[in-house]
Design goal:
With about 220 residues, the chain is of the alpha+beta class. Helix content is about 50%, strand content about 10%.
Length: about 220
């Protein structure tokens, strides 16, 4: 029997929403005690971080601003004490209607969701890079340039990002000394975000490469 006729409703899912859904599936599969690439954080700690970012506007600034980090840590610990299933539900539903992140989610959260999804995936031996859409890779490429400028702002050596297909962006100008990071946009974004479980090649003088590898990429 054919289904009833009527109007067809198209639901447009942004890249951020799609990656958020994929992250939730992985987080559910690995469980609350699973390790991550975020230091000593478990999956539960990472979930609490994402909930604070989406829903606690009073505490979210401390994620980036060191002088507010103490308060953010206190709030995150309280959030982390909630049932893991509730945290996952909050992540899945995304920012609430009253949050500015509700409107900004498609613009600012694709990279965030991707990086933290990989924090879960790549904390386990035998991980493999995922095959991402061209649209997603292009979105992550834009994010890599922005994040790279912050990550390498204090570098004594010039740093350029180069994709496997030849696109380049200089994130720190140098005076005759330069290191080029080569890889897919997704891998480059992970590296400039401070992750080391990545598929990235380095080009330049070995001494300069050692300097760049040793830099603190946090911001």
């Amino acid at each position: 029997m054919c289904p009833p006729t009527g109007h067809v409703r198209w639901i447009v899912v942004s890249l951020a929403q799609h990656e958020r859904a994929e992250l939730v599936l992985t987080m559910t599969a690995v469980g609350q005690s699973a390790p991550t690439l975020c230091g000593e954080w478990t999956a539960r700690d990472l979930a609490a971080h994402l909930v604070v970012r989406d829903r606690r506007l009073d505490a979210a600034p401390g994620i980036l601003l060191p002088f507010l980090a103490g308060y953010t840590e206190q709030v995150q610990k309280r959030v982390a004490s909630r049932p893991f299933e509730d945290l996952i539900s909050d992540i899945a539903s995304g920012p609430p209607l009253w949050s500015p992140f509700k409107l900004l989610d498609p613009l600012v959260n694709a990279g965030e969701m991707f990086v933290h999804h990989e924090d879960l995936r790549r904390a386990h031996p035998g991980w493999q890079p995922r095959s991402l859409s061209v649209k997603m890779e292009n979105t992550l490429w834009s994010a890599a340039g922005l994040v790279g400028r912050l990550a390498y702002r204090a570098s004594p050596v010039g740093v350029t990002l180069r994709t496997s297909d030849g696109r380049t962006v200089t994130v720190k100008k140098g005076r005759g000394r330069e290191v080029v990071l080569v890889g897919k946009p997704s891998e480059l974004l992970l590296y400039v975000f401070g992750r080391s479980e990545v598929a990235v090649d380095f080009q330049g003088e070995q001494g300069d490469i050692d300097v760049v590898r040793a830099l603190d990429r946090s911001f």
